[in-house]
Every structure is written in structure tokens, then in C-alpha cells.
Design brief:
With about 450 residues, the chain is an alpha+beta fold. The chain has one domain (about 5-450): Cytochrome P450 (Cytochrome p450, Orthogonal Bundle), CATH 1.10.630. About 55% of the residues lie in helices and about 10% in strands. It contains 18 helices and 13 strands. The chain has a six-stranded mixed sheet with strand order 1-2-3-9-6-4. Strands 5-13-10 form a three-stranded antiparallel sheet. A two-stranded antiparallel sheet has the order 7-8. A hairpin with a 2-residue loop joins strand 7 and strand 8. Helix 11 (about 205-225) crosses helix 13. The model has no long low-confidence stretch (mean pLDDT about 90). The protein binds protoporphyrin IX containing FE. Protoporphyrin IX containing FE binds near residues 103, 327, 401 and 402.
């Protein structure tokens, strides 16, 4: 399919010698990766990792083409998907017919309308999770942010989307296992051509994590396959749909989809919300405006879905949070058939790397990209923006299935906490990301809260 961006004559892609900066990528991935982004200027370039030279796509026009316009030519396959395929198998995190079938079965659960219908139950679970902050807040004790966010998110996801079929003890085992998957896979990303029979660091931690996840998920599938019931939770929905797949393969298909949903529904949300607290501490003017809006609309709680329409600034804070820290910071594709893009011939079988982190911080597409400024998402300021200058949830047929869940859950959690507690401090003051499949802070993030006295 010819596209406008290819009116240019075909030339060789410029190659960036990442090899020299590989140690920098490991030490401080965000700065190294952002520097690479800056050097592209929006052009399609190749990044030289020795035998592996993926194309890097950063321009919104090009992203739109790859993710939506001609998405069938850019599959989730190739050396960068292989490591995760060992975890996700052939469900909604794969591609082709297996993905399509999974997406069709799961999609109805995650439409904006259906998620809005679940909002009341989500708000209840969030409020219960926030209740647990009372004791440390009253005693002035530090609160471990990632663990707390994961606990609140788990409660919501397990109750509303998994129909309480996974108990909280098992859910608590899953969170560190998914965390370990995200960090242990990184050497396989950096050394994509090392055959799997040769161990690299992280392999054992990855295998152990997958075993822990399967210890929870496989018995769950076995329990529900034969009598899925009428529930609207995704365990029931997948088990009912599995009949059409048939035999042992069907149990595997349910397992693959449940693992994909557990990974995407909890880790992403908890990770994204962790970045908020250092940002609020560093930007007291944003924190004050946020508190003021929440105080006026919610009072001292509890927060319910009806409040959300009156919390526009809270939503902008969440959007800006995902601009600076898009937890799904890197997602690759494989070129199926050679075609030109941005004047460069993308060759069949090669890997393309797409990174919202890079595009979201390029001066070509954003004013003062390093600044935390939620106001840039006010209607007036965002109306002229290219759809693919901001894409924390991807786009096209693979667009994040859970984006409505995330937006709702994030606003409920932030408004819920800040309607009841004042943020006294956050350490560290500046959190830096560590290299992993998702964008997580390297440091231990802790906050102290103080209860807001009710009038
Ligand atoms: C901060 C929150 C989140 C971010 C930044 C995020 C980001 C993304 C991105 C970038 C993709 C596209 C990947 C690709 O094109 O290869 C994606 C896909 C997906 N996300 Fe999310 N996600 C978030 C939360 C969630 C939640 C809460 C759920 C589930 C309740 C979820 C479920 C999924 C699923 C199932 C897919 C695969 C969709 C498909 O390929 O058809 N995500 N997400």
C-alpha cells in the first residue's frame, strides 16, 4: 500500500553505532535511549548492535503506518518477541490467527461501555485497598510505593476481572514473579542471537518466575475448564470460548491468555502509578492543584465513578504521567514484506523498534518535552497534536485492551489516596528507570502520608 510519507526517493538508512553506547544503555537506559531518539530527528534509522541492526521508528506518520495503516505487514514476531513468547505463548500477546481469536473473545470485557459498568465494583475494591494505608499514615511510617500500588491494583483486578478465582495469597506470589520476568528477560533482548541452549544471565530467574506463574494459573485453568459457569470474569469467558479450540490445546490457549492478562493488567498499572509520587514531590504546584480539585469534588471520599467527569486535571496528570513514563516503553515488530517507509527500504524479516518513550520526548513533536506539565493535555492544547505523537497504549489492531481500565483505575486510586491523605514526602526525590521489559524505577520508592482531618 503506497503511503504519502514515501514520496521521498529510497536511500540507505542512517546507522547509529549503539554498540559504543551499549554500556550506557545498561547503566542509564533512559538517557542513552533518549539520546538515540534525538539523533534520529524523526528519520528512520538503524541501530547497530553488532549482528543485530533493528530499524528505529520515531516519527508519528511512520508509527501510524506501522501500527495501523499497514499493520498486517508488521507482526509481533522476530528475535525481540521470542523471549516473551516463552511466557505468553499463543494468546492475546501473540499475533496472527491465535491473537485474533483471543482478542475477539476478550474485547467485549474491555470496551469503554463495559468497563464503565464495572466502575462501581472497581471503586469499592480501590477504597478497601486504600483503607490499608490508614495505619502507616497515622503512625507516619514509610509506605513502599510499588508494593502498595500492586496490592491495590491486584485487589481490583482479581475481584472485578478474575471473579475472585485467584486468592490474594496467590495474587501476592504473582506480582514478584511478573516483576522478575520483566527484569530477567533483558539480557535476551540485548543478546538476541545467542541460542537458547547457551545460558545468559537472567535465564534461571526467568524460568523460575514462569514456573511460579504456572503453579498458580495451570491449576486454575484445570479447575474451571469443564464447568466455566455463566460469570462475566475473564476466566469464565475464556473457558467457555475454549470449547471451539478443543482438547489439550484449549487448556493451553486459556492458560496463555490468562497469563497475558495477569501480566498486562497488574504490573503496568502499578508501575505507572509508582512514577507519580516522585513527580508530585518535585512539582508542588501540580500536587497542590490536584489536591484542590480532588478536595472540591470528592471531599473526604469515598471516590466513586460519578466523580470522575468532574476531575479533568486528575486525568491530565495521568496522561502526562504516561507521556514521561510510558510503562510499555518499547515494543518491536518484524517486517513481513519489504517496503519503503520514510524513504528507507525496510527489509523483510528485519526487526523494527517502536518506543513511546522516545517519541514522547522528542523536541520535534513536543514543546519542552522534559517538563512535567499536565496542562498540555487540556483540550485546547492537545487538539492540534498528531494522534501518534502520544501513544502510550500503542495503536491500531493491537491497541492496549486495558486502556479504559487503566484510566479509570488510575484516577480512582489517585483521587482516593489524595482525598484522604496529604503527601508529606517521597524518597528518592528523582527516580531513574532500570532496564526491563517495562519502565520501573531503579530505586526503592517510599512515601509518607498524613491523614487529612475531616471537617
Ligand atoms: C499504564 C498502563 C498500560 C500501558 C502503558 C499499556 C500499554 C500497552 C501497549 C503499548 C500495548 C501495545 C503493545 C503492542 O502493540 O505490541 C498494550 C497491549 C495490551 N495491553 Fe496494555 N497497557 C496498560 C495497561 C493495561 C491493562 C490495565 C490491561 C488489562 C486490563 C492491559 C492489557 C493489554 C493487552 C491484553 C494488550 C494486547 C492487545 C493486543 O495485542 O491485542 N494493558 N498495552
Amino acid at each position: 500500500m503506497p503511503i504519502e510519507v514515501d514520496a521521498k526517493p529510497i536511500r540507505q538508512a542512517r546507522t547509529l553505532p549503539l554498540r559504543q553506547v551499549l554500556p550506557a544503555v545498561i547503566r542509564d537506559p533512559v538517557h542513552a535511549v533518549l539520546e538515540i531518539g534525538r539523533r534520529t530527528g524523526g528519520d528512520v534509522v538503524r541501530v547497530n548492535l553488532g549482528p543485530f541492526r533493528p530499524y528505529l521508528i520515531t516519527h508519528p506518520d511512520h508509527l501510524q503506518h506501522v501500527l495501523r495503516g499497514n499493520s498486517a505487514n508488521y507482526l509481533r514476531d522476530g528475535v525481540l518477541w521470542k523471549p516473551l513468547h516463552r511466557l505468553f505463548g499463543d494468546g492475546v500477546m501473540s499475533d496472527g490467527p491465535a491473537w485474533e481469536r483471543s482478542r475477539k473473545v476478550l474485547q467485549p470485557v474491555f470496551t469503554a461501555k463495559n468497563v464503565e459498568g464495572l466502575a462501581g465494583r472497581m471503586a469499592e475494591a480501590v477504597a478497601e485497598g486504600i483503607d490499608e494505608l490508614a495505619r502507616p499514615a497515622e503512625s507516619g511510617l514509610p509506605i513502599d510505593v510499588p508494593a502498595t500500588m500492586a496490592r491495590i491494583v491486584n485487589r481490583v483486578v482479581m475481584r472485578v476481572f478474575f471473579g475472585d478465582k485467584i486468592d490474594m495469597a496467590d495474587a501476592a506470589r504473582l506480582a514478584p514473579a511478573f516483576d522478575a520476568v520483566g527484569t530477567s528477560v533483558i539480557f535476551r533482548y540485548l543478546l538476541p542471537f545467542v541460542p537458547y541452549r547457551f545460558p545468559v544471565p537472567g535465564d534461571r530467574a526467568f524460568r523460575n518466575a514462569v514456573r511460579t506463574i504456572d503453579d498458580v494459573v495451570v491449576p486454575l485453568v484445570n479447575r474451571h475448564m469443564d464447568s466455566p459457569g455463566e460469570g462475566d470474569d475473564i476466566v469464565s469467558v475464556l473457558c467457555r470460548a475454549a470449547d471451539a479450540v478443543g482438547g489439550r490445546r484449549s487448556a493451553r490457549w486459556v492458560r496463555d491468555n490468562l497469563v497475558a492478562m495477569l501480566a498486562t493488567a497488574t504490573e503496568t498499572t502499578a508501575g505507572a502509578l509508582t512514577w507519580l509520587w516522585p513527580l508530585l514531590q518535585a512539582h508542588p504546584e501540580v500536587a497542590a492543584r490536584l489536591r484542590q480539585e480532588i478536595g472540591l469534588v470528592v471531599g473526604d471520599g469515598p471516590v466513586g465513578p460519578a466523580h470522575l467527569a468532574d476531575l479533568p486535571y486528575t486525568k491530565q496528570v495521568v496522561q502526562e504521567l504516561l507521556r514521561l513514563f510510558p510503562v510499555g516503553w518499547l515494543f518491536p515488530r518484524m517486517v513481513v514484506k519489504s517496503e519503503p517507509l520514510g524513504g528507507v527500504l525496510l527489509k523483510k524479516g528485519e526487526t523494527i523498534v517502536i518506543s513511546p518513550l522516545i517519541t514522547h520526548r522528542m523536541e520535534e513533536f513536543w514543546e519542552r518535552p522534559e517538563e512535567f506539565d499536565p496542562g498540555r493535555f487540556s483540550g485546547r492544547r492537545s487538539s492540534s497534536r498528531h494522534r501518534y505523537a502520544y501513544f502510550p497504549f500503542g495503536g491500531g489492531p493491537h491497541q492496549c485492551l486495558g486502556m479504559h481500565v487503566f484510566m479509570l483505575e488510575a484516577q480512582l486510586i489517585i483521587a482516593g489516596i489524595l482525598s484522604r491523605y496529604e503527601l508529606l514526602s517521597c524518597s528518592p526525590e528523582v527516580a531513574t528507570p532500570q532496564m526491563g521489559a517495562s519502565l520501573r524505577p531503579r530505586q526503592r520508592v517510599e512515601i509518607t502520608l498524613r491523614p487529612i482531618p475531616s471537617d
